[in-house]
Amino acid sequence: MLGLTVGINLVRAANTAVSPASVTAAAGTAFTYQGQLEKSGSAVTDTCDFQFSLYDASTGGSQVGSTITKSSVSVSDGLFTTELDFGSSAFDGNARYLQIAVKCSGESSYTTLNGRVALNPAPYAVNAATAPWSGLSGVPAGFADGTDNDTTYTAGTGITLN
What we know:
mainly beta; Immunoglobulin-like; 5-stranded antiparallel beta sheet; 4-stranded antiparallel beta sheet; elongated
């Protein structure tokens, strides 16, 4: 019996020096997925293939997007990490659940693990990149048109505004 304990972690570059180009670069839609795989109560150490499918319900429901297959993922003491990218349209603010199937060396077919994993807020941040102004609440009146052209800035001592 295969079991899975999972954790989700969004990983973005953590550079101490930030260039202007990196500030304006798109963050992308991929996120890092980390899990712990056990078989008969013992941590797996193997190379395994995984299939990740996104659904709109914890059971039943409809699949959202395509299944992502990750081959030859290293599993050490049960721990594995992989990057998943279902695209920005997959996370539209509605509930999403991840179904996982695994096939380790010597196995001929995938085993779907029991229980879909609820994906909670962090991956939904990808929706922010394409959210329309009309979809935002609490926007100050001066920003309602999408342009900050009515804010007054005052330079402090030794600072010049251009």
